[in-house]
Q: What sequence folds into this?
């Protein structure tokens, strides 16, 4: 009996392992090789040298991270109170579903809605004019890019925070209130720290895609905001320079891995300090 | 406090739904643009109905989402079982790590890496390549939905079943799978959501012959606005809303049934 069970485990491992090798390890390895394979030079680090010595590319990297950070902060600022309010509602499952519902509408359709809303004669501009201000350029601005990106990422931030808030033992905030803490103190000292895992998941699920929202930079940002994602897309699908596109990809992966490693390290340190 | 909460909820839901409702309202515009409502008409729905190309693309998108989520759910469940059963810590960590790689990678990286892989394999870009890519980025979320259910599962159940003479296949189909079923369903729905919502990966690995809704909307939106797209979004929004209501009614019913069962047991 035990040997059959072992054979089962081996079969699972085999299937899953093969899949991981073929569709996770292989593509990323190929990306790395492609980034080193400079046309006409064979294997070389030329692409990396070009990337790190070129001002525009470095500026773009910083810009890209800065915008992703802004998007994350905006969505967190809206989502955290929203998640908190949701947990207090009577039919909270239903309201949560309503928050998730927009994710079932394809993000391109939502982006498309904003083209209509923010356009030159769009609804928003007409309301601004009706209030007595002049017509504004709304579409193709950095603000529009931030707005649409935050809008699209919002549900992905609410969901993990909501789950983390529901996991909190309701007796803890009750105890804190009994012991004389104001509701703000309870929020700051009890609820916020306990919901940290959800906030972290939310930040990760919003920050990373925000680096690569190239269709929004195209359709809403009017190519003014150029992110790493836009640059990769450009190199792969427009100028067909896969080699340099891969280089940017690898840099992006390394930067991400670094930020993740840094955040977890800091967490461990904090824990040690508390001890 | 209550007033602030209500206000914030109202504000957020307004924010979430205003753009979608805006799309829906203008789908009934008899004019041709998303500005200046000219009058009510069904004309854009008729256009949509005659646009066989767009309808074919919608069908493609749905078939792709269903197929890729089904395959991803199967492989993802196997993957979760593999990670759960593995006892060597290093191997377990490696598997989990590799699983999460695609989950944390930006879409553009997945798209670019898969474009290179598919070209290296000599595959013609089209349905198959898009399907493989969608399966690939859906599997990690299935694994992450199923794995906690496996870890929460009472090990005694499995032991008891095999003690009572169940073969490993029986243990799997009659004990393990039913216990982790909620995780599998959740994984399937997440995979479906991911697939329906994806644009970037598809954009990279799709060829001339095959297109999904997102890619089509992208190319149309660059040329300008067409209210047919509004009509289509409105229908999709309606369907999603009906699904949500149905799901909510269903889940309420099952929970109340569970509650009564418990009450009977107490008696």
A:
């Amino acid at each position: 009996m035990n040997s059959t069970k072992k054979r089962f485990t081996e079969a699972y491992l085999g299937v899953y392992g093969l899949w991981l090798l073929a569709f996770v390890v292989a593509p990323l390895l190929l990306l790395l090789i492609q980034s080193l394979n400079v046309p006409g030079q064979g294997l070389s680090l030329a692409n990396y040298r070009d990337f790190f010595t070129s001002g525009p590319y470095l500026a773009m990297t910083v810009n890209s991270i800065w915008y992703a950070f802004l998007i994350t902060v905006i969505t967190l600022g809206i989502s955290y109170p929203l998640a908190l309010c949701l947990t207090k509602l009577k039919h909270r499952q239903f309201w949560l579903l309503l928050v998730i519902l927009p994710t079932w509408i394809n993000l391109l359709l939502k982006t498309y809605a904003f083209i209509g809303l923010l356009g030159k004669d769009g609804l928003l501009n007409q309301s601004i004019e009706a209030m007595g201000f002049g017509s504004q350029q709304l579409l193709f601005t950095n603000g529009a890019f931030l707005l649409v990106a935050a809008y699209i990422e919002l549900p992905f931030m609410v969901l993990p925070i909501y789950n983390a808030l529901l996991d909190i033992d309701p007796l803890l905030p009750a105890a804190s209130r009994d012991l004389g803490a104001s509701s703000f103190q309870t929020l700051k000292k009890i609820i916020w720290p306990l919901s940290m895992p959800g906030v972290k998941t939310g930040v990760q699920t919003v920050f990373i895609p925000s680096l690569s929202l190239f269709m929004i930079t195209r359709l809403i940002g009017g190519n003014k905001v150029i992110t790493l994602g836009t640059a990769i897309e450009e190199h792969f699908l427009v100028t067909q320079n896969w080699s340099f596109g891969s280089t940017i990809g690898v840099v992006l992966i390394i930067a991400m891995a670094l930020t993740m490693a840094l955040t977890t390290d800091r967490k461990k340190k904090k824990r040690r300090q508390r001890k | 406090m209550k007033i602030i909460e209500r206000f914030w909820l109202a504000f957020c839901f307004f924010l979430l739904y205003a753009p979608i409702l805006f799309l829906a309202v203008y789908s009934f515009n008899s004019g041709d643009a998303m500005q200046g409502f000219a009058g009510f008409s069904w004309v854009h729905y008729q256009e949509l109905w005659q646009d066989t190309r767009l309808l074919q693309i919608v069908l493609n998108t749905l078939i792709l989402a269903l197929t890729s989520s089904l395959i991803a759910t199967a492989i993802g469940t196997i993957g979760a079982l593999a990670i759960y059963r593995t006892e060597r810590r290093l191997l377990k960590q490696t598997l989990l790590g590799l699983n999460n790689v695609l989950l944390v990678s930006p879409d553009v990286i997945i798209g670019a890496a898969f474009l290179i892989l598919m070209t290296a394999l000599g595959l013609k870009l089209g349905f198959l390549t898009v399907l493989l890519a969608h399966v690939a980025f859906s599997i990690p979320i299935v694994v992450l939905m199923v794995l906690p259910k496996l870890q929460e599962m009472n090990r005694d159940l499995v032991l008891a079943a095999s003690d009572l003479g169940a073969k490993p296949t029986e243990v799997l189909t009659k004990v393990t799978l039913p216990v982790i079923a909620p995780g599998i369903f959740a994984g399937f729905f997440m995979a479906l959501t991911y697939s329906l919502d994806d644009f970037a990966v598809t954009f990279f690995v799709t060829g001339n012959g095959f297109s999904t809704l997102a890619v089509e909307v992208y190319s149309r939106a660059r040329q300008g606005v067409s209210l047919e797209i509004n009509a289509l979004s409105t229908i999709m929004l309606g369907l999603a809303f009906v699904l949500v209501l149905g799901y909510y009614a269903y889940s309420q019913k099952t929970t109340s049934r569970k509650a009564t069962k418990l009450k009977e047991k107490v008696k």
Remarks:
- The radius of gyration of chain A is 23 Å.
- Strands of chain A lie at 37-38, 42-43.
- The CA atoms of residues 64 and 227 of chain A lie 5 Å apart.
